[in-house]
Amino acid sequence: MKAACGKLNFVRQTASSGTASHFPARKATLANLESRLKFKRSHKEARRSGRHFVENQNQKGDKTMKQNQTKTAAPAVRARAGLEKLVREIAELKLREVALASKQDAEIQQARERYGPELARLEDAIDRKLAEARRFAETHRAIFNGRRSIELASGVAGWRLGQPALRLAAGGTWETAVAALKELPQLARYVRVREDVNRQALLADRQELDAALLERAGLRVEQGEIFFVEPKLDSI
């Protein structure tokens, strides 16, 4: 910047002392240097103002973040009176929750009573027509041409394979089936024997069991505390 200013002063002096024939060229050079100098000054000022803008924005952002953190921070309860206030607020919120849930249940019940009968009639009509279509399809298999389904103008009718299910043969029980599977070498592997820790029994007998003995088995009984607030809704 200083070099440009010095060069500009030199050109000005030369222009003022030069001859008339060289004056237009020197005047053009002077105008060009002045334009370049103004551009550099404006560019430098823009960079300075931009840096200040970013710094100000960062400072504002930090300040806003601190304010938000201050607003969202929960006040610490320092005395029993504060706990009393919190429990009362919980009770009031619980009352509102109960009232809103009751209103919701009432509206759901009203909707069921309003639409339930018509939905039941529609479901019954669909079932009856579906049974009629099935009877026709079972007695007219030829129209399927060996396929499982047939495409019609308003839909597709046919049979789908359901999930396979294992059923007992006539007169059989699961106990007799297990005994029979054990006696058949090809099917014995389909008898499942499951071993598991009886957790319920261990917890029921926890007072009688020695902790060291449980540790030897790789077990321990834990029972933590759960904080609760039981509002007295009648007092609100």
Order of H and E elements: HHHEEHHH
- What spatial form do the alpha-carbon principal axes imply? extended
Span between termini:
78 Å
Fraction in helix: 55-70%
- The averaged pLDDT comes out at 81
Strand content is under 5%
Which class of secondary structure composition applies to the elements? mainly alpha
Oligomeric nature of the chains: single chain
Q: Kindly state the number of beta strands.
A: 2
Sheet with the most strands?
2 strands, antiparallel
Rg measurement, Å: 45 Å
What are the low-pLDDT stretches, counting only 5+ consecutive residues below 50?
10-28
How many distinct helices? 6
Strand order of the largest sheet: 1-2
